């Protein structure tokens, strides 16, 4: 539950190796990489709680989301970022820019790659970007549960780029499966080793400072994206218009923005079936997250070219 921390902490403490308690530690770790490599899945697993939505569509994450892990040995504030990909429009370009600048002013960089596939152009870009960074870099070779292991290709690429850039940077390589949780203990130990001394940055009972309205909108978008294909997931934005918090039930009005009338029909589905499924799934997940029943009302609105409209992008926090 996002508001109830006790469960989360117990789960995490059994998973991590107990270290003798030393001085207080606190730091910010930026989780970066190309789109779809599993950054949000990893952030959620490191935290033991879902704070960031996940899908197999590109640029699922559209905002910078802080995932705050507090343990007896210290606090790490993970920054989940949008995945970089070849962007055509303003939305994609803005998200790429936000992700690229998220490596500045942090204590360590956690670059995630999909080690089950060959390095892509965007991986090359990230390697070049971090090769001369002064902060510690950890490269998570994710999706280790899948059979094809291309880790050696990533290590060779790193070598090549460092030679070209005359950099002696040596990252820590960590083989993980964010989906199944393999390699998490070792990864967390490495991250805490690279965390500077200092008092916590957030109170110890906070998992994220991501605004509730944005989180609720993301949960609805995640369910939509799960059912929609092709270009449609990119043409969708969700906005929470109103929340009425009663003790036993929260009544929420949400607007689903699409760009064309034809898309509106697809989102609603035959006899409203798709929208009904989305509503039910989102209500269920929000109940699990917030521990209170939800009554969602979903409206679908056409907003032509919202992805090019700077005001709309600002409204959603995408610019
Ligand atoms: N097999 C396998 N799949 C994974 C693993 N980690 C993530 N995935 C899947 O990869 C897809 C993308 O995961 P996300 O966590 O949304 O990836 P992301 O890097 O945050 O993507 P963007 O937000 O678009 O940048 C989802 O279908 C995940 O279930 C893993 O360790 N193994
Ligand atoms: Mg993501």
Annotated CATH homologous superfamily of the largest domain: P-loop containing nucleotide triphosphate hydrolases
CATH architecture of the largest domain, please?
3-Layer(aba) Sandwich
Q: What gross morphology would you assign?
A: globular
The largest sheet, given as strand count, sense and whether it forms a barrel, is:
6 strands, mixed
Number of helices: 10
* SSE sequence, one letter per element: HEHEEHEHEHEHHEEHHEH
**Which stretches of 5+ consecutive residues score pLDDT under 50?**
3-18
| Count of domains | 2
How far apart, in Å, are the first and last alpha carbons? Answer: 29 Å
DSSP summary, beta strand count = 9
Query: Could you name the CATH class of the largest domain?
Result: Alpha Beta
**Helix content, binned percent:** 25-40%
Structural class: alpha/beta
Beta-strand content bin: 15-25%
- The largest sheet has its strands arranged as 2-3-1-4-5-6
CATH topology of the largest domain: Rossmann fold
What small molecules accompany the polymer chains? guanosine-5'-triphosphate, magnesium ion
**What is Rg?**
20 Å
Average pLDDT over all residues: 92
